[in-house]
Design a protein that fits this description.
Blueprint lengths: L24 E7 L9 E7 L5 E5 L1 H4 L4 E2 L4
Antiparallel strand pairs: 1-2, 2-3, 3-4
Length: about 70
Amino acid sequence: MIEKGAGYNVCDPGKITSVKIAKVIEIKAKKGMGTEEDPVREITQYWDLEGNLLIEKDPYLYGEQTYSESKE
């Protein structure tokens, strides 16, 4: 059981409506042209097993936030 303060970012258990374990493909890659406007950096992408991009984490463009591309 995950307890509060155990170093995990957990929602209030009373508000969780669903939990699912899913297989995904994680890709880490270099991105950027090496310019001031577009520096080279490492990004992380998550893809489903059907080849759909689920999310891309780009620390330069989005800081700590993430960009999610929905196909729905």
